[in-house]
Amino acid sequence: MAFKLIDIENWERKEFYEHFIGEVVCSYSVSVNLDITRLKEKKLYPAMIWLLTKTVNDMPEFRTSLTSEGLGIYDDMHPMYTVFNKENKNFSGIWSYFSEDYDTFLRNYEEDSAKYSTSTRYAPKDGTPVNSFNISMVPWIEFTSFNINVYDEGKFLLPIFTMGKYFERDGKRFLPLAIQVHHAVCDGYHVGIFVEKLQKYINEF
Fold first, then answer.
1. Which domains are delineated in the chain?
2. Helix (H) or strand (E) segment spanning residue 50
């Protein structure tokens, strides 16, 4: 893992960043319906975690973070995600190492989810990488909008993804996905490119 600091004074985004991080602190969310018909025969949750992480790793706007070192971009990211305890109806937040090879990632995911899905703790797995981002799923709700509010002085720059309950329409299967980003590092254009890339990866999966 490498974290490359941004030279803000010579950064083409300097004016936009300073406006949305200091003057009009602004995050926003976008909800889209992804065509996941190609994933019908796959385990949906790990497949989508892998696809989201692969897409995040394609785009520096989704890997930009403000840390104690300063503003910079991680060269790669790993997913943090929730697993549901069916007995006590609660969830735990865990993480798995990402691999470009899906079968390798799936083994990591299955080992971690099997080990921690019966936990009663919020964060039972230690060692969360600093270069990680949040993914969760609410498979009981077919939503058209979903918003998360992070109360941290408005400095949380990494994306947050939330999936909902999939639905069928005109012979295809769709998945609601909410994308939460900070305007200081990510504009609507970047979200549009992200969704386009993600849908392409789903279609090719």
1. 3-204 (3.30.559.10)
2. helix 44-56
